[in-house]
Amino acid sequence: MATNKNERSIWLNGEIVPLSEARINILSPTSQFGANVFEGIRCYWNDEKKQLYAFRLFEHYKRLKNSIKMFRLEDKYSLDDFTTALMDVIHANEYKEDIAVRQTVFVDGFGNWSSRGPVGMFVAPIPKGRTIPTDKKGLRCCVSSWERISDRNMSPKVKVGANYINSRMAQLEALENGYDSAIFMNNEGKIAEGPGSCFFIIRDGKLITPPCSASVLESITRDTIIHLAQEVLNIETIQRDIDRTELYICDEAFLCGSAVEVVPVINIDGYDIYSDHEDSTLTSKIQTVYLDTVYGKLQSYEKWLTPIY
Ligand code: PMP
Question: How far is the centre of ligand 1, averaged over its atoms, from the C-alpha of 222 (Å)?
Fold first, then answer.
């Protein structure tokens, strides 16, 4: 198993190479203009079953295909190509721990920002545990002064590298001002999502999250949580616009995504949401069910898991 970063193997354009030898042309449109689409895929190690499970792989690849289509990239890779590359590179690294896989299709060559190809792909698995430090109860967030990109300029629905400049502005502004993260409003002045995560509030025992048309990524974790809340916890999710001031009076709030999983938000703009992240909160119940699902502990959701070994 590759523990040293530089000994890690990367899948690049059909070959498995050490990270230190994985090179991309610096004049390529991906390097200069962020001309790439990607997925961040989580794989979870179940020690009891001695199995590594990729979570909702098909949905990630469906979205990657959508990103390729929308971005008018050369459509070179099939769903099977995506899967084989991921399997091969994880096998090469022999990972038996939780990992995050960055799978990126990029515009290579010497073209410009409007080039459709030639496209290349890399698949990079990276060991990754829980995102939030265990001594933290949750995140202190601000509503960003930056607006979320809208469908009239850059589609928030897909994962295009260049979209993340918008996220970067919000996240770095939040950190500069002493917060942990930010929550975007969209161009209608309604709540959208976090810089790299979707957003839910809880009021009167119900989950509320902005609709997919509110300038949010078509998030796989968002969809997972809506299913699990209803089917396992019997909690309804309402998809509707959320006003900024509703954040200050909600009962609970959390961010979610493949990388951050489910993270409580404990304060927004200086307003305490809940002072203690106790075990009895709905957020912590959702967190537990989510983690049980991704590790393969809930039989009825094994359909979302792809065994790697
Ligand atoms: N919104 C944004 C802007 C993101 O970058 C992410 C992370 N991919 C998410 C939401 C969560 O998406 P997913 O659940 O598919 O990881």
Answer: 8
Task: Tell me the residue length of the chain.
Answer: 309
Domain spans, the chain: 5-127, 139-294
The architecture CATH gives domain 5-127: 2-Layer Sandwich (3.30)
Listed range (79-83, 127-131, 161-165, 287-291) with the worst mean pLDDT:
127-131
Which of 43 and 8 is assigned the larger pLDDT?
A: 43
3-state secondary structure 233-250: CCCCEEECCCCHHHHHCC
Per CATH, the number for 139-294 is 3.20.10.10
Atom index in ligand 1 nearest the CA of residue 259 equals 16
pLDDT at 4 over 90: no
The mean pLDDT value for 284-295 works out to 96
Q: Rounded to a whole number, what is the largest CA-CA distance in the chain?
A: 56
What dihedral do alpha carbons 304, 305, 306, 307 form, nearest 10°?
A: -160
Question: How wide is the angle at C-alpha 89 spanned by C-alphas 31 and 63, nearest 5°?
Answer: 60
Residue 134, token pair as written in the block? 């265990």
CA torsion angle 293 283 192 295 (round to 10): -20
Average pLDDT over residues 171-181: 97
Is ligand 1 within 6 A of the CB of residue 144? no
